[in-house]
Amino acid sequence: MKTLITSTLLAIIGTTVPAAQAGEIWRATGLEQPESALFDAAGKRIIVSNIVGNPGEVDGNGYLSVLSPDGKLVTQHWTDGMDAPKGMAISGGRLYVADITKVRVVDLATGKLVSTIDVPNTVFLNDMTTDVSGKVYVTDMLADAIYRLDGDRPELFIRDAALASPNGILADGGRLIVASWGKGIKPDFTTAEPGGLLTVDLATKAISQLPGAQKFADLDGVIAIGDTIYATAYMTGTLYRYKVDGAPETVATFNPGSADIGTDGNRIFVPLMNDGEVVALTRD
Hints:
Layout: H1 2-11, E1 24-28, E2 34-40, E3 45-50, E4 62-67, E5 73-82, E6 88-91, E7 94-99, E8 102-107, E9 113-118, E10 125-130, E11 136-140, E12 145-150, E13 153-159, E14 166-172, E15 175-180, E16 182-185, E17 191-194, E18 197-201, E19 207-209, E20 219-225, E21 228-233, E22 238-243, E23 249-253, E24 262-263, E25 267-272, E26 277-282
Antiparallel strand pairs: 1-26, 2-3, 3-4, 4-5, 6-7, 7-8, 8-9, 10-11, 11-12, 12-13, 14-15, 15-18, 16-17, 18-19, 20-21, 21-22, 22-23, 24-25, 25-26
C-alpha cells in the first residue's frame, strides 16, 4: 500500500499552478495536502483535512484546519493527532473523520479529538456521509466496501465488487450516491476500467448505476446541489456536473489532485491536494 500511494504522489510532482477557473470566487492557500473540504453550516465555516505525507501511512502528521466562508484561514491546526485524515461527516454535534483504518471523533464546539473508532478488516477508509437518522457511512476504497457507524459501533454495511473502488459518498434520502474510482487499480492509481456514479439503496442495499454516468472517470469526491450531482476526478483534476438521464459535463479542470469536494448549497469547495489549496466556485 505504501509503495502504491507513494508512486502516485511522485507521479504528480512538478505540476504547474492552475489558472483561475470560470466562476472562481476565492482560493485559500498554505494548506498541506488538503483532501476534504466540509462545510459546517452550524459553525459557518469550512473544515479541511490535511494529510501531510503518505495517504496510507500511520505517521501522526495529519490535522484539520478551519477556513472562514470567504476563504480566510481561521485556524491552521484546529485538530492535531491524526495520521492521514480524509473524508468527514457531522452527526450529533460531533465530526467524524476517516483516517486510514480508523474513524476519529472530534467535538465540533472545541475541535478536541475525543475518541478513535477502530474499524476492523478495513484497508483505506476514504469519504464519509450522514443519513437523516444520524448514522454515518464511510467508504473503504481499496476493499469495495462501505461501513456504517451507529453511534460509535462500526459495522459492515455492504461489500461488493460492483462498487468498483468506492471513494466519494453522499446520503441522499433513501439512498447513497457513490463516486467510484474504477476497477483494477494499478500502481500509479490509473484503472483497468474507469469508475462512475452509482447508488446503493439504504433499505435493500441494491446497487444501481446512474444512467449515462457509467465508467467515465476515476472519481473521488461527490456532492449534490438540488437535482445536480458534482464529482471530481483526482487523476485529471476535473470537476464534473451530472443530471439524471444526461451525460457528465466538465465544469472546471485543475492540476491532478482535486479531491473530496464540499458545498454550502450554493458554492462548491474543491480541495486541490497537490497544490495545497482549496478553491471556491459558483455552482454553474
